[in-house]
Amino acid sequence: xxxxxxxxxxxxxxxxxxxxxxxxxxxRPGIVYKIARVEGFYVPxxxxxxxxxxGNLVFTHQPGAKPGAHGQxxxxxxxxxxxxxxxxxLALEMDLAKKKYRKSAMRKAWTWMK
Length: 114
Description:
114 residues, 2 strands, 5% strand, globular
């Protein structure tokens, strides 16, 4: 797990220096936009919009993120807040890449987006 975090942090650093150097989830490029639409990223004033967080990701110490609003999250959970939209998009792509690496059953999660 530590190696995976280190790898993701290195990828984030490279992508911030030269964003075109890394492409995630190339077999499903449209899914990131679908997730952003469903999560409300394109709605002005929404948490995903104000937090530059197209995936509406929960804060888990992602590179470049700070804890944001609670929203309707239970307990001490907070949404991740990024400085720019580019960082938020990268975090979403990294999240999907991590789930793909872990062979998560993303198909189940994506059925409600169709």
